[in-house]
Design brief:
CATH architecture of one domain: Alpha-Beta Barrel
Order of helices and strands: HEHEEHEHHEEEHEHEHHHHHEHEHH
CATH class of one domain: Alpha Beta
Number of helices: 15
Distance between the termini: 14 Å
């Protein structure tokens, strides 16, 4: 399950998180963009349900220094008996530069170099030297977590997927269809594949597609995801979406997304239908499906609505392991 849940402030997650293990959930994951940071929700979850595995998917490498990232991850790993996976990624100019005022430079190299720095730091080494995209005068973690965090890389295309397969423990991805998974797995070449899957548990297809179009239009027009879907073979079908977006026609861009693409990228339907869709991802090669809930009209809003969605989608209830 992805935290935080929609419409739920951090403190109000406690009752929901405490229930997750009994409902059949094994992990909680966070992201980091314009909402909550990637670590505080996981620290709360570690206190409320210590048996859960925790993970970030992903935190950007350019908005924290390598040593601070290592210290934060090591501290959280030490607080998480169920284990911790640190997912790192390049993010992009909207978050790194426009929001944080940091130049977005050499993203592949920065991810690679941060990954190598973290490997050495988590092994207890004294780390110093020129990594390529940054230079470290000297750093050593004062307290090593046991076990150390696992390391995965946010990856969409062969370059970053290949790096994840060679030098990390796996990759994190999202906004892909079931039929896309084999290509991603092949480009990864080894290691665990985690995917965040956006799920709207509603039988109202019209509502789900409207929500899906609002969610997907900015994503499909973002530089990285546009290139991702070109690689996956959707460039021609998404050309009208991009043309409308380029001239500022947001409504036109949403309307131009074909129904079948919305249905492929947003999991929707009854809880059982959603579970079956998620199961198809797993059968195709996703090792860790992390659900990201999208509000549905059947449940209303607020913490109790989110709690009920979590319950209705639980592996224990829908019979999916």
């Amino acid at each position: 399950m992805t935290l935080p849940l929609p419409g739920v402030p951090p403190y109000a997650h406690r009752r929901i998180v405490e229930e997750l293990p009994d409902l059949g959930y094994t992990d909680v994951w966070t992201g980091e963009a314009a909402g909550a940071d990637g670590f505080v929700p996981l620290a709360l979850a570690a206190a409320w349900a210590p048996e859960l595995h925790l993970g970030t998917a992903v935190v950007p490498v350019q908005t924290r220094g390598p040593a601070l990232l290592a210290m934060t991850a090591a501290t959280l790993a030490g607080a998480a008996p169920g284990g911790f996976t640190l997912g790192i990624g390049s993010s992009g100019p909207p978050f790194v530069t426009a929001t944080n005022g940091i130049p977005f430079e050499r993203p592949y190299q920065r991810v690679r170099d941060t990954l190598r720095f973290l490997r050495a730091a988590f092994a207890g080494e004294y780390v110093a030297g020129d990594f390529g995209s940054f230079r470290i005068e000297g750093f050593q973690l004062a307290a090593l977590p046991h076990p150390p965090p696992r390391l995965i890389v946010g990856a969409l295309r062969p370059g970053m997927l290949g790096l994840a397969g060679r030098e990390a423990d796996g990759a994190a991805t999202n906004f892909l269809a079931v039929e896309d998974v084999p290509a991603v797995v092949a480009a990864l070449g080894g290691g665990e594949l985690m995917a965040r899957l956006f799920v709207c548990p509603t039988r109202d297809v019209t509502y789900a597609r409207a929500v899906g179009r609002r969610l997907l239009a900015p994503i499909l027009n973002a530089r990285t995801y546009s290139a991702f879907h070109d690689w996956l073979g959707r460039g021609e079908r998404l050309a009208p979406v991009r043309a409308a977006w380029a001239v500022g026609d947001r409504a036109g861009a949403q309307a131009a997304i074909p129904d079948d693409i919305v249905d492929a990228l947003l999991v929707h339907g009854s809880p059982q239908e959603c579970a079956a869709h998620v199961a198809r991802y797993v059968a195709a090669g996703i090792d860790v499906p992390a659900l990201a809930l999208v509000p549905a009209p059947e449940f209303g809003g607020g913490p109790e609505a989110a709690r009920e969605m979590v319950r209705r989608l639980s592996p224990a209830r829908v019979g999916v392991s």
